[in-house]
Design goal:
Elements: H1 2-11, H2 24-33, H3 43-52, E1 69-70, E2 74-79, H4 85-96, E3 111-118, E4 121-128, H5 133-141, E5 149-155, H6 162-173, E6 178-183, H7 192-200, E7 215-217, H8 226-240, E8 244-245, E9 252-261, E10 265-274, E11 277-278, E12 282-285, E13 288-296, E14 302-303, E15 305-306, E16 311-317, E17 326-330, H9 333-355, H10 363-369, E18 375-382, H11 385-397, E19 405-413, H12 418-425, E20 431-435, H13 443-450, E21 454-457, H14 460-474
Parallel strand pairs: 2-4, 2-5, 5-6, 6-7, 18-19, 18-20, 20-21
Antiparallel strand pairs: 1-8, 3-4, 9-10, 9-17, 10-16, 11-15, 12-13, 12-17, 13-14, 13-16
Helix pairs in contact: 10-14, 11-14, 12-13
Bound molecules: guanosine-5'-diphosphate.
Guanosine-5'-diphosphate binds at residues 79, 81-87, 131, 183-184, 186-187, 219-221.
GO molecular function, one term: translation initiation factor activity
Organism: Allonocardiopsis opalescens
Subcellular location: Cytoplasm
């Protein structure tokens, strides 16, 4: 239990509390002391192992080199706020993605594909629809990389700004080549050459200055230079990346966006990264699974199959995956369900570990030491109103000095309800005192899962004693 682990740590010369996060090295030390072998596994490794137990390899194209076929680049637009990222995405979408039917409505599904002609050949490009580096880094934090090329938007009248350089750092960290879109050239005071000069300081040297980065002057507002920008993206992909994938295998990729739709149920946009996704296939996506009931593209049109780099909206999943979750086709529904359930169980376990240290009476002492709290919040539930009042009176009378105090944020007669637990789990958290009552139904389980401490008493003085002890622990040492 945590208390004895803390003791062992003290013997090892590590002063820690039971609620503290410790480094991997300290964990290893603790393991060695207790004769346990500690294996530290990243969530991605853990997932890979899970998939391997089903004989599935995720993340690599199957087969030899000759099975690989060219795929379109996937592009994320980044840059400083107000430099025109959204405008650019909208301009490209409406100019190059001609809806097949008159009046066809384009939909925001998280990504879209356009085509452009380069050297007489039709080439496709996939754009991620959420500009900025937050979505990009959120994906990468989960070990997922969707972006091949970053389009860096810099307003010609404003030049390089903090988020411009942040975007450059993110692109470099991801190993994604940059194409610079010098925007707002229609504006008075626009100075595209100054942008080029500024960016040389960050290692982005324009081709016309002898470097290898494509700079394109554009106006997202007036839709100038967009075709040249698309061409530059294709040329950069051809020159610097070898974008190929095996289209003839079970599809794999990433969830980009998902939500619950009232009529259609779970709606998830996935980016196919390898293989070809087809209607009717069994897929698992994060902890969601199901059979692909239908696929829609960014024009809202049904598609039967999605090759590499194609984003599609998938209908038919049991629940809503998260952005950055991987998706893969598996051989049947049973396998999909098993993988999803194991992931779900794992996530629940991790969640529990994260939250179960949030609110407990023992916690107050260490939290106070961290300067976090000087007030103990309580919710009092009792069997009759008289006992609730008596208990509340007695608890509020506990006096251990001015520095800490008790505040009762909820009280009532009857069993401990889901509502009580939700209230206690809020921020700041509270401890629930149950006097001659029990939790309703499965509420104890719920409380455990949410890390809510419920204390049961049938004698008032016991309740007072324990709360007083906790409060004393909360007292700051006097100097
Ligand atoms: P974001 O924050 O980078 O997504 O920037 P927005 O796309 O929202 O654009 C910010 C503002 O700049 C909006 O008022 C746009 O209309 C304007 N804007 C974007 N592109 C251009 C352009 O090429 N020329 C001019 N004059 N204004 C633009």
């Amino acid at each position: 239990n945590p208390a004895s682990l803390v003791q062992v740590m003290m013997h090892l010369g590590e002063m820690v509390t039971a609620t503290q996060t410790v480094s991997d090295e300290i964990l290893q030390l603790l393991g060695a002391e207790l004769n346990y072998e500690i294996q530290i596994v990243s969530p991605e490794d853990e997932d890979r192992e899970l998939l391997e137990s089903f004989n599935i390899e995720y993340g690599e194209d199957e087969g030899d080199d000759e099975l690989l076929v060219a795929r379109p680049p996937v592009v994320t637009v980044m840059g400083h706020v107000d430099h025109g990222k959204t405008k650019l995405l909208d301009a490209i979408r409406s100019t190059n993605m001609v809806a097949k039917e008159a009046g066809g409505i384009t939909q925001h599904i998280g990504a879209y594909q356009v085509s452009t002609e380069v050297d007489g050949v039709e080439r496709k490009i996939t754009f991620m629809d959420t500009p900025g580096h937050e979505a990009f880094t959120a994906m990468r934090a989960r070990g997922a990389q969707a972006t091949d090329i970053v389009v860096l938007v810099v307003a010609a009248d404003d030049g390089v700004k903090p988020q411009t350089t942040e975007a450059i750092d993110h692109a470099k960290a991801a190993g994604a080549p940059i194409v610079v879109a010098v925007n707002k050239i229609d504006k008075e005071g626009a100075d595209p050459q100054r942008v080029r000069a500024q960016l040389t300081e960050y290692g982005l040297v324009a081709e016309e200055y002898g470097g290898d980065v494509q700079f394109v002057d554009i106006s997202a507002l007036q839709r100038l230079g967009l075709d040249r920008l698309l061409e530059s993206i294709v040329l950069t992909a051809d020159a610097e990346l070898d974008l190929r994938a095996n289209p003839d295998q079970d599809a794999q990729g990433l969830a980009i966006e998902a939500h619950l739709d009232r009529g259609r149920g779970s709606v998830a946009t996935v980016l196919v990264q390898r293989g070809t996704l087809r209607v009717g296939e069994s897929i698992v996506c994060g902890d969601a699974y199901g059979r692909v009931r239908a696929m829609l593209d960014e024009k809202g049109e049904q598609v039967d199959e999605a090759p590499p780099s194609r984003p599609v909206l998938v209908l038919g999943l049991t629940n809503v995956p998260s952005a950055g979750d991987n998706f893969l086709v598996v051989k049947d529904d049973r396998v999909a369900r098993q993988i999803a359930q194991q992931r779900e169980a794992r996530e629940r376990f991790a969640q529990q570990a994260r939250t179960s240290r949030r609110v407990s009476l023992e916690d107050w002492e260490s939290r106070l030491k961290e300067g976090e709290r000087e007030e103990l919040l309580l919710i009092i539930k009792g069997d009759v109103s008289g006992s609730v009042e008596a208990l509340e009176d007695a608890l509020l009378k506990i006096d251990v000095g001015d520095e800490v105090n008790i505040r009762v944020i909820g009280r009532g007669v009857g069993a401990i309800t889901q509502n009580d637990i939700n209230l206690a789990a809020g921020d700041p958290g509270a401890v629930i005192i149950g006097f001659n009552v029990r939790p309703e139904g499965k509420n104890q389980e719920l409380a455990d899962r949410m890390g809510v401490d419920i204390r049961y008493y049938s004698v008032i003085y016991q309740a007072i004693e324990e709360v007083e002890a906790a409060l004393k622990g909360m007292l700051k040492p006097e100097y």
